[in-house]
Amino acid sequence: MGFSTDCVHAGQWIDPHSGAVMVPIYQTSTYQQQGIGKHKGYEYARTQNPTRQALEDNVAALEKGACGFAFASGMAAINALMSLFEAGDHFIVTGNTYGGTFRLFDRILRKFGLTFTFVDTSNLDAVKAAIKPETKMMFVETPTNPMLTLTDIKAVAAVAKENNILLCVDNTFATPYRQRPIELGADFVNHSTTKYLNGHSDCVGGVLVAKDESWREKIHFVQNSAGAILGPMDSWLTLRGIKTLAVRMDRHESNGRAVAKALTEMKGVGKVIYPGLDNYPQRELALSQMGSFGAMVSFTVENQERAEEVLTRFKLFSLAESLGGVESLVCHPATMTHAAVPAEARAELGISDGLIRLSVGIEDEADLIADLVQAVNG
Ligand SMILES: *Cc1c(COP(=O)(O)O)cnc(C)c1O
Questions:
Q1: How far apart are CA 145 and CA 108, in angstroms?
Q2: Which residues line ligand 1 (CB under 6 A)?
Q3: Cα–Cα distance between 339 and 143 in angstroms, integer?
Q4: For the residues 309-316, what does the mean pLDDT come to?
Q5: For ligand 1, atom 7, which residue shows the shortest CA distance?
Q6: Which positions are catalytic?
Q7: What is the model's pTM?
Q8: If you take atom 4 of ligand 1, which residue's CA is the nearest one?
Q9: Which residues contact 241 (CB under 8 A, 6 or more apart)?
């Protein structure tokens, strides 16, 4: 089946009780058993829930993996993945990874004896140089936020394989519509479904997908033992969101291209960062790996004062953290999403005080551009 068909149907079934075409919200904590040890595959809702399972099977199919697991947030999914490892294990992580991922690894998991080297994974030599005998997995995020730096997944997968190291790719930004890391050699894919997969900014969630069936029991054991499951209502909302993923992404992207182009023509705008622009250094990799350029656009104005002026003038774009919803959002990474990153590290990553990040929604292109023009020009 094609991708759009899978978005609508994969992992889902007609309710045998009523014929309902939508998987019901199984808002239950437990299930009646027929006798000792006799049940229908459902015992307790932390362990199994049909609505959650439909979502898990759906995302696993979209990512071309063997099995999927849904968690209470994107961070809970990453934490579950890391629970598969033990003290002494070492990990190579994309330097400019999502701030919450950095915080989990650096402030929490280090305490349990896991060790991390943060490197620019777009630089293959840097990745190779970071490998130690105890390296167990590479954790790669591509494209990154808000600089949109790409890592060549096929290339790092080859290095990982040569060295008997696992590879996980955070596919939150690109979505499986545009990038399927497992097909490029990754062992795991993780998502914050809070962003494009759910796509409507109305629930927080995460999914972990494994390439091989052999991980099913191990990940399910962690999910059930640690218990950070996604609830049935949120699973259902996310399933509903995914049905329109392909059509939403097409509109997000055409708006993203238009907004990026308009920004390059605006006075008062410095640098525009968008993989679809001709001057973008990794444009070719973006095309070959994602086939498109997404709808995240960053640009700079002179300084923080100017940024503040611009940010407060937006009428249609809302000043907010997060991304990937149908509505357009704008944020100031230096004081919002990346406030926890020390100033020097921010400068190294290119996150200046005049940097503004847009998550371009699916509204009318002309309205978005008009709002940008009035916000930038005053
Ligand atoms: C938001 C995000 C996360 C964390 O997900 P939550 O649902 O907020 O816990 C992880 N990775 C990336 C790339 C994200 O954008």
A1: 22
A2: 73-75, 98, 100-101, 141, 145, 170, 172-173, 192, 194-195, 204, 206
A3: 20
A4: 97
A5: 74
A6: 46, 98, 170, 195
A7: 0.97
A8: 74
A9: 193, 197, 198, 199, 200
The minimum-distance atom of ligand 1 relative to the CA of 77 is 9
What domains can you pick out in the chain, each with its CATH number?
Answer: 3-242 (3.40.640.10), 246-377 (3.90.1150.10)
The one-letter amino acid code at 328 reads S
User: Residue 348 Cα, ligand 1 centroid: separation in angstroms?
Assistant: 22
* Ligand 1 atom 2, closest CA: 192
Q: What integer best gives the mean pLDDT of the chain?
A: 97
Q: Kindly state the average pLDDT of the residues 5-28.
A: 97
* Among the listed residues 205, 184, 187, 188, the one whose alpha carbon sits nearest the alpha carbon of residue 196: 205
Cβ(336)–Cβ(228) under 8 Å? no
Give me 203's structure tokens.
């629930």
- The residue behind tokens 């060790």 is 115
Compute, in angstroms, the gap from residue 321 CA to the centroid of ligand 1.
Answer: 11
Give residue-wise pLDDT tens across range 291-304: 999 999 999 999 99
Of 317, 326, 332, 325, residue with least CA distance to 370: 317
Is residue 206 a contact partner of residue 72, using CB atoms and an 8 Å limit? yes
Tens digit of each residue's pLDDT (9 = 90 or more) over 171-182: 999 999 999 999
The pLDDT tens digits of the residues spanning 222-266 come to 999 999 999 999 999 999 999 999 999 999 999 999 999 999 999
My answer on whether omega of the bond before 143 falls inside 30° of 0, hence cis, is yes
